[in-house]
Amino acid sequence: MEWTGARYADGATVEVRGRIAASPERVWELVSDIGLMPALSAELRSVAWLDGASGPVRGARFTGRSSHPSLGEWETTSYVVECAAPRVFAWAVSDPERPSATWRFTLAAGEDGGTELTQWMRLGPGRSGLSHAIDRMPEKEQKIVFVRLREFERSMTATVDAIKGLAEGTATLPMRQGEGA
């Protein structure tokens, strides 16, 4: 990711892609399983569907609990804003009309039977924990945004790589520190 000088209000985005030697249907099973995501994330600790939902459908809500060394711990409610199996799964964080972030997985079938997986996210336009850091150090806003986007890029690359390994059968779920025998 190159320095762009983006500010939070710019709605900066990050996107990562990967080719997966598995069908879009198999990849969809993984990307639409919110319960899987904490095992693939350094920040996300837990997720749970709300209102009796048991899977992704447009309008469904879920909570996520996260932790970051610099930002602390927090909980958000996300809203599924796009859900079209096996092509797109997207959610808006905190407020579907003015989210603190929007996240999206897009799947495209390849000619070889595989899948091109894209993970994308956009900051804002609603306020987030990052907004509070910017409030404390407004003169460092561009650097704060850049550093956070780089963190997202690394995390998203790891997520896409992990989904690739799971879909292709070359990897198993990683265990978090303190889990296991």
Structure in words:
- This protein has 181 residues and is α+β, with helices and mostly antiparallel strands.
- It is built from four helices and seven strands; from the N terminus they run βααββββββαα.
- Strands 1-7-6-5-4-3-2 form a seven-stranded antiparallel β-sheet.
- A hairpin with a 3-residue loop joins strand 3 and strand 4 (72-84).
- Helix 3 (129-136) packs antiparallel against helix 4.
- The protein is globular, with a radius of gyration of 16 Å.
- The N and C termini lie far apart (39 Å).
- The model is unreliable at 176-181 (pLDDT under 50).
Q: How would you briefly describe this protein structure?
A:
The chain is α+β, with helices and mostly antiparallel strands.
* Percentage of residues in DSSP E strands: 25-35%
Oligomer: single chain
Mean pLDDT: 91
The main pleated sheet reads as: 7 strands, antiparallel
Physical arrangement of strands within the biggest beta sheet:
1-7-6-5-4-3-2
Kindly state the number of beta strands.
Answer: 7
Structural class: alpha+beta
How far is the first residue's CA from the last residue's CA?
A: 39 Å
Tally of separate helices:
4
Give the ordered list of helices and strands: EHHEEEEEEHH
Bin the helical content: 25-40%
Cα-atom Rg, whole angstroms?
16 Å
Shape: globular
Low-confidence stretches: 176-181
Detail the topology: elements first, then pairings.
Elements: E1 13-20, H1 24-31, H2 37-40, E2 44-49, E3 61-68, E4 72-84, E5 88-93, E6 101-109, E7 115-123, H3 129-136, H4 141-168
Antiparallel strand pairs: 1-7, 2-3, 3-4, 4-5, 5-6, 6-7
Helix pairs in contact: 1-4, 3-4
